[in-house]
Write a structure and sequence with these properties.
The complex is a heterodimer of chains A (about 475) and B (about 475).
Chain A lengths: L1 H16 L5 H23 L8 E3 L3 E3 L1 H20 L10 H18 L3 H19 L6 H32 L4 H14 L4 H17 L8 H8 L2 H25 L5 H24 L4 H22 L2 H32 L10 H4 L1 H15 L5 H14 L3 H27 L14 H19 L2 H4 L3
Antiparallel strand pairs in A: 1-2
Helix pairs in contact in A: 1-2, 1-4, 2-3, 3-4, 3-10, 3-13, 3-18, 4-5, 4-10, 5-6, 5-10, 6-8, 6-9, 8-10, 9-10, 9-12, 10-12, 10-13, 11-12, 11-17, 12-13, 12-16, 12-17, 13-15, 13-16, 13-18, 15-17, 15-18, 16-17, 16-18
Chain B lengths: L1 H15 L4 H21 L8 E7 L6 E6 L1 H20 L5 H23 L3 H22 L4 H29 L8 H6 L4 H18 L9 H7 L2 H23 L4 H27 L4 H21 L3 H32 L15 H15 L6 H15 L1 H26 L5 H4 L6 H19 L2 H24 L1
Antiparallel strand pairs in B: 1-2
Helix pairs in contact in B: 1-2, 1-4, 2-3, 2-4, 3-4, 3-10, 3-13, 3-18, 3-19, 4-5, 4-10, 5-6, 5-10, 6-8, 6-9, 8-10, 8-11, 9-10, 9-12, 10-12, 10-13, 11-12, 11-16, 12-13, 12-15, 12-16, 13-14, 13-15, 13-18, 13-19, 14-16, 14-18, 15-16
The chains are: A mainly alpha (about 475), B mainly alpha (about 475).
């Protein structure tokens, strides 16, 4: 809670401090805020603030689970703000402030105990994003992204709200634990009413939209490609994590009892998401668009955790999101770099990169290997624990997922091939070194990724 | 475990080394070999696991458990003998290129040593995958035209096999009692129904058959071998495909004995088909490297067929033939790379009379060829004899087909030798410069192994006998139970 308050006040201070100032000068303030929040969150986690399970008027609950995920969210936001250095001409602090507000929303979504807070968190997270997606005002694609995201997003919110209303109608409560109890009773006595079933499905669809799972993923490629780099990175990591965690919480606690009803639907959607994401990514030439589809594919893998919704899959979810978040952050940051340097985001823009940027290339290599799921990276450990937790119940789905992750080699490796095995036409004189903060963040991402791959229990034991 | 850490450390040192990275790499690999030989001296080949390291890694069931038995020791020896030779083959090449290639070879060595010592399924899988990355980079970075497409195909192919293997291992993992475990002993103890065993076995088998490769999973092989740099080809053919055979012996046969009676005959037929098919294609090749690639494909088919007989002779033959095939094929590719470096091409049509250029090289090359043909008193002979005998014993017709390999092999190998080494040398070929010291060392080591193990193969048999016996007993016992 303290971390949340800290970030929120940091954002407000930033808004005032930023009047008329250059964005670059405010960056240290953002880092400071996020770093303090990270430290605060860590202190809260390690028992500085006892007792553990803090309830806030039955609206929010900060336990090990939510604090661990909040830590991840803040970490990702911090690394994200280090990886994307604003251009000199970027004015105004609103971008940073909006990101911090959005992060606050994400943190509510990991710790809600009431549908009120879920909805509030979702909106606090989304509304700044609608603005952020269009923050490159002069760029048409950015405008398109904002409009598309806004229209689709509000539609999905509507569906979610409708679902919430139906759930409320059948249980008379907004409290997720209370709803869980009611449904347990109802299932044992009479079975679920049709209204409850429709409600659950609508909530599910609304949330699936947020994490870009098929068939609600159509906005993702356009929005990801059109938005400015740091907003895309933020969406792919922080927003996705928050969405999946919210869904996990809700489906584990409230709807867990009815999983033989929504389980098959979600399993088929998960399979569809993996399939669509991986296969569409194969055909992309733009690396950013490829990563957008790959992020759809990863959403499919993440749904496995919700399908199983037990202790083990929660742990696996944390590990997986750490691995994916770190990898996606560095990948999006390097796309940002390449597009600024060459004005394009194709895979071929990376030709001969390894010679010019050995450190950056290595970071991207590890990220891509991690997303593919090669042992020694957090991506593999995450995939292993996730798949392993779901293996008993959904063997067919896991085999399908494994085969598709073999397919994903074909597109991830295109970038590796471009970096390491192809020659660029340009000479080495066009090397433009990265800023210190970018370099540092890349090294942190890579090191954490490998460390989590070799010693995953450090993360697994956090929940 | 030390055998894994040592090359890993060497790889790091060599990566950051500036001018002395080939020395560092070679020294590391020699030190690893020395350690391996030292362990061999105190190794008791009684089928028990020795030099154990066992501590929990990711969880209680995923342990860092390494141990060496006879079969593992044989393959460790193969790896650690061949790696210095492979490094020697790069000794005189462009230092700029070597800078990153040599550390990758050492990384490969670390991963391979891990594969051959792993006693935990997850650990095995991790090393199995890790071995793929360095070799992919070696082949895709330093190979020939069109290497990128070919190596990507190779990578996806083998990665697909690996994930199927992972699925099978996971299935077995969930069948282990109590808090589940990936330990080999636990996985072996799992009882499966026949249908389950069939699917689990199929997943494992596909991974191994792709790696070996056995017909019809071989389509990546010839292209990859041909387009890779010599060092990559040696790694792939000499050691990496042994991972597949080793996998069959250690991680397939004892794990799913219930499926063997339905799957092994099929694989046997496929392997023998590969033997004949590879032989026929090799007869028509003009590119020396491609010819050697198909010859390798044909030979490993024989090894796989020997395993499929599930007889003691078959296992034993497979074990020692793994070692000998590794030595022979690396010697062949070494010789071919020597020719290619000097002549600038490796097409039989353009090479003539190389023997007059360098007599000692001609002799060494001849020894490698004879070893591959499996002439008595060369190392190829005893293994091939055991394998053919076991195949005959299980099915006469298969045995006859597999026996064709001797004729084919003699035909294509001698044809290759004749066309490239004899005949009227052209102007250019007279410039065949004598072997350098590094090449001498490498080729002589291999040739010596060919001859010594041909005359006296007993050490190899002694080393693996107990392990193979044990494997045979486990399978028979489980099948009888079933």
């Amino acid at each position: 809670m303290k971390a949340l308050i800290l970030i929120f006040s940091g954002a407000i201070v930033l808004l005032f401090a930023g009047l008329g100032k250059n964005e670059r000068k405010l960056l240290p303030l953002v880092w400071l805020t996020l770093f303090l929040a990270l430290a605060m969150n860590g202190l809260e986690y390690f028992g500085w603030e006892l007792p553990w399970e803090q309830q806030w008027s039955s609206m929010l609950q900060f336990n090990k689970f939510s604090l661990a995920f909040n830590f991840l969210l803040i970490l990702l936001a911090l690394l994200g703000s280090m990886l994307f250095v604003p251009r000199l001409e970027d004015k105004g602090a609103d971008v940073f402030a909006l990101m911090l507000f959005s992060l606050c929303g994400g943190m509510l979504m990991t710790s809600f105990t009431s549908f009120f807070m879920l909805f509030l968190g979702l909106e606090i997270m989304s509304i700044p994003l609608y603005v952020l997606a269009g923050s490159r005002k002069e760029d048409l694609r950015s405008n398109e992204a904002a409009l598309k995201y806004y229209l689709m997003g509000s539609f999905a919110t509507g569906i979610l709200l409708f679902g919430v209303a139906m759930v409320y109608g059948t249980t008379g409560s907004f409290d997720i634990y209370e709803i869980g109890l009611r449904y347990t009773g109802a299932t044992m006595l009479t079975g679920m009413s049709p209204m409850a079933k429709i409600g659950i499905l609508m909530v599910m669809f609304g949330l699936l939209f947020k994490i870009a799972a098929a068939p609600f993923h159509f906005w993702a490629p356009d929005v990801y490609t059109g938005s400015p780099g740091r907003v895309t990175a933020f969406m792919a990591t922080v927003v996705k994590t928050a969405g999946v965690v919210a869904m996990f919480r809700l489906f584990a606690i409230s709807f867990g009892i009815a999983d033989n009803f929504w389980g098959p639907t979600l399993a088929i959607l998960a399979a569809l998401t993996m399939f669509v994401g991986n296969l569409s990514a194969l055909r992309q030439d733009s690396f950013k668009r490829m990563l957008a589809y790959s992020s759809v594919a990863h959403a499919g893998y993440l749904l496995l955790a919700i399908l199983v919704h037990n202790q083990n899959s929660g742990k696996a979810l944390l590990l997986y999101m750490t691995g994916y978040g770190l990898a996606a952050l560095s990948a999006f940051a390097l796309i940002h770099k390449v597009s600024r340097e060459q004005g394009r985001e194709d895979v071929s823009a990376f030709d001969g990169w390894a010679k010019r940027y050995p450190v950056e290339s290595f970071a991207l290599l590890i990220s891509l290997l991690s997303m593919t799921g090669i042992p020694g990276t957090a991506g593999f450990a995450g995939k292993y624990f996730l798949f392993s937790s779901a293996f008993e119940g959904y063997t067919w789905l896991i085999i399908f997922a494994l085969v598709l992750s073999a397919v994903s080699v074909a597109y991830y490796f295109r970038v590796i091939i471009a970096m390491y095995f192809r020659d660029s036409g340009n000479d080495a004189s066009s090397v433009e070194g990265s800023a210190m903060s970018v370099r540092l963040a890349l090294i942190i991402c890579t090191a954490l990724n490998i460390a989590a791959g070799i010693a995953p229990w450090f993360i697994l034991e956090r929940i | 475990m030390e055998l894994i850490i040592l090359p890993l450390a060497g790889a790091l040192l060599s990566w950051f080394g500036k001018n002395w990275n080939r020395q560092v790499s070679l020294l590391t690999s020699l030190a690893t070999l020395a350690l391996n030989l030292f362990w061999l001296s105190s190794f008791i080949p009684d089928g028990n696991l020795q030099f154990e390291h066992n501590f929990p890694w990711m969880s209680e069931g995923i342990r860092f458990h390494t141990a060496i038995d006879g079969l593992g020791m044989l393959l460790l020896l193969l790896t650690n003998i061949l790696i210095p030779v492979i490094l020697l083959s790069r000794w005189n090449m462009n230092a700029d290129q070597n800078k990153h290639l040599l550390p990758l070879v050492l990384l490969m060595q670390a991963a391979l040593n891990g594969v051959f010592t792993a006693a935990n399924g997850m650990l095995f899988y991790v090393f199995w995958e890790l071995a793929l990355i360095p070799v992919y980079f070696i082949c895709a970075k330093w190979g020939e035209t069109d290497r990128i497409r070919i190596t990507l195909k190779f990578f996806i192919y083998t990665f697909l096999g690996s994930v199927l293997m992972l699925a099978s291992l996971l299935f077995l993992y969930w069948k282990t009692p109590g808090a589940h475990s990936f330990e080999w002993t636990e996985l072996v103890a799992v009882n499966l129904s026949e249908a389950e065993a069939w699917w689990v076995g199929a997943g494992l088998l596909i991974a191994f058959l792709i790696k070996i490769p056995v017909f019809p999973f071989h389509t990546w092989q010839a292209d990859t071998y041909t387009s890779s740099p010599a060092a990559g080809t040696m790694l792939l053919s000499g050691i990496m495909l042994k991972m597949g055979i080793f996998g069959m012996l250690r991680w397939y046969l004892p794990l799913v004995p219930e499926a063997l009676h339905s799957q092994m005959p099929l694989v046997a037929v496929l392997s023998v088909a590969g033997v004949v098919y590879g032989g026929i294609i090799a007869l028509r090749q003009h590119d020396l490297k491609r010819l050697a690639a198909y010859s390798s494909f044909s030979h490993v088919g024989l090894i796989a067929a020997g395993i499929c007989t599930m007889s003691l002779n078959g296992f034993q033959g497979a074990a020692i033939q793994m070692f000998n095939h590794g030595v022979n094929i690396v010697a062949l590719f070494f010789a071919i790379s020597i020719i290619e470096q000097r002549m600038g091409n490796r097409s039989m049509d353009q090479l003539r009379g190389l023997a007059s250029g360098s007599k000692p090289f001609a002799v060494l090359f001849m020894i490698a060829v004879l070893g591959t043909v499996a002439v008595p008193l060369t190392n190829g002979f005893p293994g091939e004899l055991l394998l053919l005998q076991s195949i005959f014993a299980s099915h006469a017709l298969l045995g006859i087909c597999a026996g064709l390999t001797i004729i084919f092999c003699a035909a294509y190998m001698l044809r290759m030798y004749q066309f490239s080494m004899f005949g009227q040398a052209s102007e250019k070929q007279n410039g065949f410069s004598p072997l350098t010291t590094a090449e001498w060392l490498g080729m002589v080591t291999l040739a010596a192994l060919v001859l010594v193990l041909g005359v006296y193969p007993q050490p190899l048999l002694d080393l693996t006998h107990a392990s193979m016996n044990q494997l045979y007993d486990i399978i028979q016992e489980r099948i009888a139970l079933h």
